[in-house]
Amino acid sequence: MFPTPIEKRPPAARVTYQAFLPLALIAWLLPLIAVAVFSIKPGADFTNANYWNMPSSFDLAENYGQVFFNSDMPRYLLNSFLITIPTVVGAVALSAMAGFALGIYRFKANIWLFFMFVAGNFVPFQILMVPVRDLTLDLGLYNTKTGLVLFHIAFQTGFCTLFMRNFIRALPFELIEAARVEGVSEWRIFWYVVLPLMKPALAALSVLIFTFIWNDYFWAVVLTQGPESQPVTAGITAFNSQFRAMYHLMSAGSIVAALPPVAMFFLMQKHFIAGLTLGAVK
Amino acid sequence: MTQAALPAASAPDRGFWLRNQQTLAPWFFLAPAILFFAFYVVFPIFQSFNLSLYEWDGLGEAEYIGLRNYEDLYYEWVDRDAFYVSLKNNLIWLVLYLAAIPAGLFIALFLNQTVTGIRLYKSLFFFPFVISQVVVGLVFTWFYDPAFGLLNVVLGWVGLGPVNMLGDENLVTYGVILAGLWPQTAYCMILYLTGLNAVDPEQIEAGRLDGAKGWRMLWHVVLPQLKPATFIAFVVTIIGALRSFDLISIMTGGGPFGSSRVLAFYMFEVALSEYGFRMGYGAAIAVVLFLIMLCFIAYFLWSMYREERR
Question: Counting C-beta atoms within 10 Å of the first and last residue's C-beta, which end of chain A has fewer, N or C?
Fold first, then answer.
């Protein structure tokens, strides 16, 4: 193990390390802690310029109540879910099939198709922006959640296919050969042999894509406007203009907007990290 | 080879589908993904290239103007001090963003211990990456705020400041990059933590016996084994740097006086904001950004191709 495990060091080093850990963490998360503190202060503290002394009262319920019952925030949150969940399902389904095809079959175009998916995944959004916006307008899907979902599925398919294909390549190929000898059809091989083995990959990708899509801002601004279809990342700017200079509410709103992917991460940590670090070890 | 696995005798008496299943099946599996990808990703790239030769407001007739948009960019005839400022800022982003890689490695080394509660520490250090960039942008805007921001409070303790990070033309880009480095460092950290987990303990022991310690151990024994992690960290950091849009849009809106623009933001501003709907001009900016990105994409694909050949 590198660096030298702390247990093998002198006790003084160990004590220093353990004392230093929480301090480092606080320093690292300082900007976030500040916002969390803001979100439980009463508005009066800001008008009195009492920014960093003790809050004059704890208004946690009051502030978050405002966010949930007196703004469009619940609407935006719902939109975010209605955009994120179908995208996850769609992108994972498409890429499981595409990854299966690219991982199992040998044919000439294989590597080129694979590279197309990988390369597409890296292109700057701006080169897609105008044509995709036009396409969405032409389909009559501008400012709808469906329009956003369709684009997200298409774009995420690039990354997901890369992931799925590499995962399937690592599966024991003998299983598929054995099934073929038995005369099992290709579709059934996919459905009954490969898919069950792909559960870890499916879980990892789902969590990852959930976070990516939830946090998308650019496409939300390009393809939607207004509370009927905008997700929370775009909605928060409208929220902030509704509560201009009311930092306690803006802080509470930001925390609410950030929470679902955070919850997802803590609940599914193992899968999340497995997805993120695929390929980081050989 | 897959073909060899098929029983040879089965071919003639079966139907067309059964005979050709092996060759046709991949295309059925691929069809939906290719269709979606072609319509939303591949064609639009070519459409943007084409559009960059036109003048178009998004509604009326598009007028063919050849390379005029590119000339306008090159000589900055339309927007003074926009294109080259953006280009310069993109470069600054690219270079400084790479700091996330050593910073992530540093934190990973710091956290690669087995004391009680270390797992929770690792997750909490990773935390910034999970939050949306929009929230990161807001958080840092308030952190930098000249009236109540914690930054100036902390600077005050050591007798420095106050600074108005986002109001100063010369500081603003660095302020935004610092905000971007926060989640990016967390990302690199998690890549390296996973990589460190897989480092071969025998090689470390062998290195110790040879008297390697500290830096020398890190450089000669550990880092070579972390190469896959470094490669991925490099890819995601470069892409992240060139994609920087959310933070700039939230924190500064390109200001003050356009001094924090990058190409990605400038393009959006030109094509889809109150500054007007100059779609062709925007497409030309996007093409420039795309060509910059293409150098890196080509390099990444080439590296992957070499891996595949092994």
Answer: C
